[in-house]
Amino acid sequence: MAPSATLSGLITRQAMAFVLAGGRGSRLMELTDRRAKPAVFFGGKTRIIDFALSNALNSGIRRIGVATQYKAHSLIKHLQYGWAFFRPERNESFDILPASQRISEDNWYQGTADAVYQNIDIISSYAPKYIVILAGDHVYKQDYGVMLEEHCENGADVTVGCVEVPIGEASSFGVMHVDGQDRIVDFLEKPKNPPEIPGKPGFALASMGIYVFNTDFLFERLAEDANDPNSSHDFGHDIIPSLVKGGRAFAHPFHRSALRSGPESEPYWRDVGTLDAYFSANLDLTTVVPDLDLYDRDWPIWTYSEMTAPAKFVHDEAGRRGQAISSLVSGDCIVSGSQIKGSLLFTGVRVNSYCDIANAVIMPRVDIGRNSRLRNVIIDRGVQIPDGLVVGEDPAADAARFRRTDNGVCLITADMIARL
């Protein structure tokens, strides 16, 4: 049952969202060589982190902190440009919290729990009653107010957002068992052999990396954890398992608070942590009615939007017609005498004449030379594709030149092009 707007609003205004955005995301390979995973481009104009931040804002949470660490410049620049509209006179705040040895001159953030612990003084200055810990690297739309209200109703020590995932993917998550009242009775962080959901073979109940705590209670646990020499100072490995054993840990199924694209649609949540998953999630948006609705004005995905000219399609002659079919094309793109199918073009892409491009995720400021044929590709920001390049037709040649996945998706970066 959805919470009343009045009650949910009261709770969210007493909450602070703390986004963990320091991870590299190494399974995205060279795509995260120069940026953290939360800063990776997604959906034509947003970054991955914009989803967690937008969920917090749309839920009514007006105090947000973002912990950064790995190659954070791109992420910090995006946050400064796109999320600097919070106003302290309205009891709002937005803090970017790079790892800066604030507790010890020798330590960066040692784990997800330590990232919060090192910023206790900053969090305390805002005196939030509740803390919503969020992973900054998943794509989904969720009303955290529903989860916060359940947390209060259950008198929980911690409430963990959870989603059902195929058993083959579950080793990348914390996996839990719950009883009939959604109380967590067992929790395993990234198990090699994840247990299935009883009565639902082939699926595991996985943590979304979303945790709700009462602030005072969390600070006490973080202080205990910081003084434990055997701890890895991580929520999934240390904090949550200890509360499952000795506290009141409850699960919050994602479907209860998910924002759906339609009344019959399935709740949408994606861990876009591999090249194949990232590629598929982006191309899902090119379908007629995608499961992730980016056109919903009631729950927008906020981001930094450059001031750009409209997209342009030029030339209208046989063999040289600028057109895009079943594609998303952002501002400042020019498609000149080429055909685009089932693809996403981020801001400022140039596609020169006589190209044939299909199933492509093309990041900002890419320039594609004439007579190129590209299939099943992810092209990193700023890459200059040489005239006549062909990708997606010869698997052996693709694997020799680029990062090719088992599913045939090729990642193309500037360094790879320079080696040709």
TrEMBL record:
Residues 309-412 form the Glucose-1-phosphate adenylyltransferase/Bifunctional protein GlmU-like C-terminal hexapeptide domain. Residues 17-286 form the Nucleotidyl transferase domain. Transmembrane segments: none annotated. It is an enzyme of class 2 (transferase). Pfam families: Hexapep_GlmU, NTP_transferase. The keyword Glycoprotein does not apply. CDD domains: ADP_Glucose_PP, LbH_G1P_AT_C. Pathway: Glycan biosynthesis; glycogen biosynthesis. Alpha-D-glucose 1-phosphate binds at residues 109, 174, 189-190, 207. The record marks 69, 108 as: Could play a key role in the communication between the regulatory and the substrate sites. SUPFAM superfamilies: Nucleotide-diphospho-sugar transferases, Trimeric LpxA-like enzymes. It catalyses: alpha-D-glucose 1-phosphate + ATP + H(+) = ADP-alpha-D-glucose + diphosphate. Keywords: ATP-binding, Carbohydrate metabolism, Glycogen biosynthesis, Glycogen metabolism, Nucleotide-binding, Nucleotidyltransferase, Transferase. Its EC number is 2.7.7.27. PANTHER family: GLUCOSE-1-PHOSPHATE ADENYLYLTRANSFERASE, GLUCOSE-1-PHOSPHATE ADENYLYLTRANSFERASE-RELATED. Involved in the biosynthesis of ADP-glucose, a building block required for the elongation reactions to produce glycogen. Catalyzes the reaction between ATP and alpha-D-glucose 1-phosphate (G1P) to produce pyrophosphate and ADP-Glc. Homotetramer. Belongs to the bacterial/plant glucose-1-phosphate adenylyltransferase family. This is Glucose-1-phosphate adenylyltransferase. It comes from Sphingomonas morindae. The gene is glgC.
